## 1
Amino acid sequence: MQKIFAQNATETPEPVKADIKGLVPDWLQGTLLRNGPGLFSMGDSAYNHWFDGMSLIHSYTFKDGDVYYRSKFLRSDTYKRNTRANRIVVCEFGTMIYPDPCQNIFSRAFTYMCNAIPDFTDNNLINIIRYGEDYYASSEVNYLNQIDPHSLDTVGRANYRNHININLATAHPHYDDEGNTYNMGTSLMRMGRPNYVIFKVPKDATDKERGKLALRKVEQVCSIPMRSMLYPSYYHSFGMTENYIVFVEQPFKLDVLRLATAYFRGVNWGSCLKYDKEDNTYFHLMNKKTGKAVSTVYRGDALVVFHHVNAYEEDGHVVFDMITYKDSNLYDMFYIENMKQNADDWVESSKGFSPPVVQRFVLPINVDQDSPQGTNLVTLSDTTAQAVLQKDGSVYCTPETVFNGLEMPGINYKFNGKKYRYFYGSRVEWSPNPNKLAKVDIVTREHKEWTEKNCFPSEPVFVATPGAVEEDDGVILSSVISPDPDIAPYLLVLNAKTMEEVARAAVDVTVHMDLHGMFIPSSPM
């Protein structure tokens, strides 16, 4: 699997016209912008983990039925430092590096004990975020790199900490109907109890005439106190409805002391995450308008979650769907050493890992404390999820299983925060490396798939047909790679209703497996 997922990619800085099979819809105008790891060694040094690779931004631009491909490495400070040294000199998630091998143990101890939280890499390889009219390559640290979404040039660097008091932030924000951006960060360095912070960047925050970036207008919406100062919950995403933020405080935790002394003790940052299977999961509802929390304590069994699918409100309930795991071993599968196996061995060894499960949770917003203990407070007729009132007044939540074996979920984003019927994702059957795309109908619980031998599609992205009324009226876009040298990488276009192929745009260049991104429609003339 290392052959196709963890080999060094090369840039394609100038647009390359794709060879199209089928017919790309005339209305599909814009750019599919993607991000992911693309460089895994420099000089004689190599990364230990797939999530450590240097960010490579790539794009497929659709114009009048044609498709053009290009890619460029993110010119982060980390990339520049590594390139100048011709070796890896900046620590990453799974790779601890000592730039000066002769530095003694006392010097290292002094440096790190004086800085409770280490200064992180700015290798933003996870996603693309829009703040105002600015676009940023993002990961889960305080640094962002601004990019030009058309040329893919790196045009600036930003630090959340210059605008709001957070040390970490998600790479999965939400956008409301007005175009404002909501995101979430962790504040570990502040007076009093550390908090999880929800913040908002207004749609009109960018001032291009004065060269001012959107982040200067960031607004704190609310904060959520941590249950443990030394063991804050790890989170990769969150949910948002019309009126509420949904935050899952899971028992997959960051050991702050271990993080602060990681360099001194010679362990990587990834080892600072620990799963406490004996703890509960806590669900927080925060009112977006008032910044106040719903006072009810909602909790459930221990789980691990990386990706939310969607959330919405219905008849006094908040309903949210997310992809859960029974343990935190997913990251271990992506250590490069574990990826050196062939596909058959990889699938066999993957069977010991917890598979992803799409689960639905339902939280009653207004809890009647006079209800009898043991009462299921969920009154919706289309779900078996339960929320049972406990003796102490808390509500214990039991989910409904919606679908087994799917990751990297996507929806028609016009339905984000609203009741919806369909979601799309990468089909995962004992292996995190997808070779199928799936569409799931939540109402009928039926699903449709696209697959092709020796082809590995990336996260599916839904683009709606202009003026569409039906939720699934549009196309699915996915970048596809293959270990077969006779199969050129291509951009796949599927009919979102049927999951049948509409077109593919093949390019005779190196294309890497990516993680996340977005479609940016062309501005009307």
Note: Residues 2-434+452-521 form one domain.
## 2
Amino acid sequence: MGSNTVIPTQDLNLYLSLPTTSTTTVIPKIEPKIEPLDGPPLPPPPLHVPTSPCPFPSPAPLSTPASAEADVYSEYDRISDLFRFAFAQRLEKYKDDSILPDSDENLLAIVPVENPDDQLSNVDLTPRGRARKFPARLSELVRVMDLKPEDRSYHRDLIRKNRMLFDSLRVFIVVEDEKHRDVMGPHRKARGDLKAAALLRDHGLWLNRDKRIVGDLPGVSIGDVFFFRMELCVVGLHGQVQAGIDYVPASQSSNGEPIATSVIVSGGYEDDEDAGDVIIYTGHGGQDNHRQVQHQRLEQGNLALERSMNYGLEVRVIRGFKYEGGASDKVYVYDGLYRIVETWFDVGKSGFGVFKFKLVRIEDQVEMGSAVMKLAKSLKKNPLEARPNGYVTLDLSMKKENFPVFFFNDIDGDHDPLYYEYLSSTIFPSFVYNGGSQTGCQCHGGCSDNCFCAMKNGGEFAYDRNGILVRGKPLIFECGLHCRCLPTCRNRVTQKGIKYRFEVFRSRETGWGVRSLDLIQAGSFICEYAGVVLTQDQVQIFTMNGDSLIHPSRFGDRWAEWGDLSQIFSDYVRPAYPSIPPLDFAMDVSRMRNVACYMSHSSSPNAMVQLVLYDHNNLSFPHLMVFSMENIPPMREISLDYGVPDELTGKLALCN
């Protein structure tokens, strides 16, 4: 990978391209962002140092010492006009001049924002009682540019692993809290997201805190979905725990002016207007229970947005809206970059003065994630109306699944998936069901951690109460045919079949692909990887005929990544129980298959294979169950790590 450069400079109007000696990529190429300066401009760089063109619009000319006083009064007049002239008529109507400053100092005053980390003061950051000091976010503004493909892959994987750690840690905390409640009795339910974020910060695992990035955040893609505000802070996409405007405060800025980097649009302000590509965003302040009760002031985040507009700087937009059936009742979707093109002072619906900012989405970006989620929702209701061209069949499974599996191809006339018999579950040889223990748990109500099936899993269940996988294991025993527990038992997850609506589609990049019309939460069961199981003797015959075989032993051990808390707990040990013998079988998918067989390969997959037993006890022939490793947004392709290439052909054994 090519080397990348961080260029420190006091004069942010100068862009220097300096030679580097690094040969290992650990950070992307970063260009400093323009900020106005306090004093006169610095002298030009030496002639032997080349300069690169400035990617930002040129700001207003910098003041010289002789003109500094005049510029102060000019700025005073500009803000005064914004308050008085634009709002004078409405002030007369409402007979309220409380927003007008009493003095010039009040008018120009910018209230410094406390360190955003202080908003976590009520969170137990050190469960063992150790007092710690955490470094504040640094204020240097930079822009990431010229990322090479390997750089993009590096940062995507970094974000992916960080989010996986947050999600699995959150689930673990909630499960441990549930155990404590069962023993100690009812108490306040744990906020797993807050505790997970606190532990990650305790171990220095929050990302992008050494610089404030203007523009896209490396490793975060448009359409990525987050269930918790704290996760936005952990990855650095939005650094404010509660406030909707993230910015470098004036107290940290090199020139005393705040600059905005991101905003959250979640309908929390009654005067907001969201038309997708164009947003009328209301400034912050003066609210009580989602209603405006005071006039807003041009300070803090409001001033930061106005300054970003003045310097032509884009902001990241994250939309938050209600969502049922997820880890929380709300989701946050990254929708890309917007420019602030206009601002004005207006009377809001409640009769108080508010600042409004017009944000326009920058062109040539991929479709907004929130728009894709709306499309997916409409496809579930009426697919032919929402997308009239491209559907080959509305149920590839022929009613064998809990929900229909759509088949979509708007690229060519290939209808190959129609010619295979659909399997909803794997077909094992009859001898697999013979012999072995036929004993199940005797729980007449709900199963507990001391029941027989829990003991087989090492003394604990693999899932939380919502069916989310707590951590990957070599093998999971679910309650089965010989158990007396109810069908609603928390230890019956994969055997219930799919709970999402899937679509097999034709892809220009991967041949065939699979995507969901639902948002899939990290750690959720997706579907079984189904086929006809063959013994090794049968495998040799089928290989000679060139049939399509899947070798379970070649799937990567991705299960070990989900729930790996070794970065948090020094005594963490990778699960090794229950142990199983090597998987010495293959699955034929040449004539009978299911939706999983169309999932594409990836070296950084968003799904994994977890081995599960429930309908028999033969350890050598488990079911291959697919679980999500991250939050998978609707319409995003689901991928697996198929492992090592075939020794003979050098190709991965993929159905596509």
Note: The two ends are 30 Å apart (CA to CA).
